[in-house]
Amino acid sequence: MVDILVIGSLNADLAVRVPRFPGPGETISGTDLETIPGGKGANQAVAAAKLGAAVAMLGRVGDDQLGQMLLDNLGKFGVESSAVRKTDSATGDAIIIVDQKGQNSIILSPGANGKVTPADVESAPPAKILLLQLEIPFETVLYAAKWGKAHGMTVILNPAPARELPDELIAGVDMLVPNESELSLLTGKPVFDRASAQIAIAALMARGAKQVILTMGEKGALAQTSVENGYFVPAHQVTVVDTTAAGDAFIGGLAVAFSRGIAMPEALNYANACGALTVTKFGAQPSLPTAAEVEEFLQAL
Predict the structure, then answer these.
(1) What is the phi/psi pair of residue 183, to 5°?
(2) How confident is the model at residue 284 (pLDDT cuts 50, 70, 90)?
(3) d(Cα 63, Cα 102) in Å, to the nearest integer?
(4) Which of 60, 136, 146, 257 qualifies as a cystine partner to 112, CB 3.0-4.6 A?
(5) Would the pTM of this model clear 0.85, i.e. be above it?
(6) Helix or strand or coil: residue 124?
(7) Is position 135 within any domain?
(8) Residue 23, helix vs strand vs coil
(9) What residues contact 189, with CB distance under 8 A and at least 6 apart?
(10) pLDDT in tens, 96-153
(11) Is 26 inside any structural domain?
(12) How confident is the model at residue 199 (pLDDT cuts 50, 70, 90)?
């Protein structure tokens, strides 16, 4: 049994840095294009593996050069990838533009990610924790959540990219980890500070959510583990280079902490450190920190 199983997307990130985002119809110059391993699923798998967890990944890539690059990259970080299938389709891509403030704009082309099926899920290995996102077909995510619970796993859903979700899925996972915009879309309520976030989280719990952890970027993280119990942990202040994969680093760190039996407040602080270190570097998976880097960062606080 592995510590963490990730069922989700694998993308080749085509990233370029620009002085600012272009307006409609405008052409601007940026840096040379970089091809970087990414995808929310693979990012979270690599994030957890770099922190020392035993991790397996299930998904699909194309039978092409980019797909092989993504598989090789999982192997580089020790992620078990025998459940990642090659399919007769292009590998998924993400076109990422990063401005000089480190903020990004992303366009997804799902490719092989759109062909991950419920039947694929049956080939996944057992795990303590199952991580899910929404970059593969929704019916597969819903099936995987039920499958994970049936096999005794703790199921964590990162509801990204943002979309509305049925109560069946909201109530069917152990933990939801949205950001502010995702929480707002899920509940139809504006989320802009802790007070508004708690109102939205309460609405989500009224629909059956068991635990909600809200990532709030530079403001920190807010966890509601029941209607009565909540925790807030402020963000660590760092110089932002690129926010790509910060949320994935947070979730990977959170899953690793839970797999080690770490309690919620300390787990949140550890996950916050993972996210903070990630934004100090460019790119998705290259920016994800190692266990040693996180420990050094926390000890220096």
Answers:
(1) -65, -40
(2) confident
(3) 33
(4) 60
(5) yes
(6) coil
(7) yes
(8) coil
(9) 196, 199, 200, 203
(10) 898 988 888 889 899 999 999 999 999 999 999 999 999 999 999 999 999 999 999 9
(11) no
(12) very high
